Amino acid sequence: MNDVKKFFTKKVLIIVLIALFISITTVIAVTSNSSGNTFIGRTVNTLTAPARRMLASVADSMEQLYDYLYKFDTLEAENEELKLRIAELEEERRDYAEVSAENQQLRDLLDLSSRNEELKFEEVSILSWTSSNYDSSFTISKGEKDGLELLDCVITGSGHLIGQITELSATTATVTTVIDPDTSLGAMIYEVGELAMAEGDFQLMQDGALKLTYLDEKTQVVEGYTITTSGRSGTYPRGLVIGTVEMVEMDELGLNDYAVVIPAADLQQISTAYVVTEFGLE
Q: Are residues 222 and 268 in the same domain?
């Protein structure tokens, strides 16, 4: 846009000025040669009037175009400033969202601790996920030297169950998630207080889900029910949220019902987690 502006302010304006100069010079010359001859003067004025009007119109148009280009450049600069300000506000909003999420996690952990005063946990980072399509597990940043043990359960900052430590080294550990086919733990249907088993299933794992089995024939399980840990085995604290019932299906033999459960923990998004190292039995 600046190049266009320079073109019109230099090239075209020079041409217009030259044309105006030639026209004015011609008129003056003719008028001078015909001084005293009013008829010739009037004739010259009449003949040159269209040219003068055209030149005046061109000059006016050029002035308007110059003003437009100048205003465009000004608006363009203001637009860039607004874009920068919007980017700054977006960054501030993201920072605020991150801080709010962290604060909410801390409140959730505090609430979880208040319900189980003996609960202790260790914050860890997820280093990598296994590349296998046959299991669901990942490696965390701490290990035995940090006080972690085999079968310690792993939760989110909101107290949602992620899985359990199944392999341990001095500095790292492997966590097998709740949707892994090898997972099996005691569960409770929160709304009705009935016990069941939460189990991983290879087919459901592909959809990021697990199943709830050993349902009592009299138990009514409906979509939206919350599934928590029962705490009966002593491996998991009682009351950790496993997930929510999505649907109830019949097994392949057509004999028993089972519920499809969507984990409360967003396994695709977690980057940090908490290993429960101690908890009181209820």
A: yes
Identity of residue 257: D
In terms of C-beta distances under 8 Å and separation of at least 24 residues, what long-range contacts does 103-109 make, across chains too? 104/157, 104/158, 105/156, 105/157, 105/158, 106/157, 108/157, 108/158, 108/159, 109/157, 109/159, 109/274
CB 188 within 8 A of CB 228: yes
Residues 165, 72, single domain; the answer is no
What are the residues whose beta carbons fall under 8 Å from the beta carbon of 256, sequence distance 6 or more?
213, 215, 250
* 203-258 tens-digit pLDDT: 999 999 999 998 877 778 889 999 999 988 888 989 899 999 999 887 766 567 89
Question: Is residue 47 within a helix (H) or strand (E), and if so which, with residue range?
Answer: helix 38-115
Residues of the chain with pLDDT under 70: 1-56, 58-60, 62-63, 65-67, 69-70, 95-117, 252-255, 281-282
The DSSP line for 148-178 is --TT-EEE-TTSBEEEEEEEE-SS-EEEEET
Residue 206 lies in a domain: yes
Which residues on neighbouring strands pair with residue 121, listed in sequence order? 276
For 33, the enclosing helix (H) or strand (E) is helix 13-33
The residue written with tokens 């009351």 in the block is 239
**CA 119/CA 278 separation, integer angstroms:** 5
Answer yes or no: are the C-beta atoms of 226 and 193 closer than 8 Å.
no
> Domain check: are 27 and 140 in the same one?
no
Domain boundary among 38, 65, 87: 87
Q: Residue 86 carries which side chain, given as an amino acid letter?
A: I
Look up residue 165 and give its amino acid: I
**Domain shared by 141 and 253, yes or no:** yes
| Beta pairing partners, 226 | 244
| Amino acid type, 1 | M
pLDDT digits (tens, 9 = 90+) for 162-173: 999 999 999 999
